[in-house]
Amino acid sequence: MAARVDALYIFLLIVTGMMALLVFTLLIFFAARYRHRPGVRAEQVEGSTALEITWSTIPFLVFMAIFAWGAVVFFKERTPPADATEVYVVAKQWMWKLEHAEGQREINELHVPVGRDVKLIMTSQDVIHSFYIPAFRIKQDVLPGRYTVEWFRATKPGVYHLFCAEYCGTQHSGMVGSIVVLEPAQYQAWMNSGSTGPLSASGEKVFAELGCSTCHRSDMPGRGPNLHGVFGKPVQLADGRTVTADENYLRESILDPGSKRVKGFQPVMPTFQGLVSEEQVNALVAYIKSISEAKAGAGTSARLGVAVEKRPPDKKDEPRAMQARAQASGNQVQVQRP
Ligand code: CUA
Asked: Is the CB–ligand 1 distance for residue 164 below 6 Å?
């Protein structure tokens, strides 16, 4: 992405630089050429249609080219690949909390393997922050009350700056961190040290603890919709609208269930606003994604997480290697339904 952004930026610099040069050269040239001379009177010059059309059309075409080029880069940067590894980001005054779909938690540091697409699903616990990695040319505001997304693929191992790029209070300038890009083998070693289990598994636990499973049943019709397979699919709402069940929809439905009620269900679900932390909402979203086979935006890792968790405990070390292999080959593992 950096090369694309740079190419466009350099093009803009060259175009504007050439225009500035042209303007100043003509300015100096005309000032000398048409300077005041004693006894010479200025003549009135009428306009030229050909000239005016030319100097309108050429800049118009240049601007349209910049617009089209910029739009291509923008959409590329705004569209995470469907099979990207997912990392949940929670911003707060004044730190970054990161949680991998595989369960690793980090603060102000994000470890990623080189060459893999990484999608960041971000929200804030308090005010607006902005997740900015200058070396990757990506920056995205992180807002309270909803998810925003950005993605990257690191191409070179190393340590890169992470900044908060939105003034968020006294310690804003201290809200910095680093992105540590590792070789795949190193990354695997890092992953193997100290995981608390996949995020979707913590989500499954929260799901059970909060009693969600009493209404959202998969074995029989419940008071709430069956959530298996719901992620990434269109949902018919009671008010006639159809929305896509993406991360933001799931999040909103947990915190404000009345806002987008599913057709055919009563408004019986209480709000969980204030009852669950941002981390728990993330875990719930990861869990619901893991029980959906929908490919759209769902990371394989989260689905694998559940499958892995259901394995017997004596094979504890094997799942991770499996997970890595499956991820490397892009295989999908079917989730066992309870
Ligand atoms: Cu967070 Cu500035």
From this structure: yes
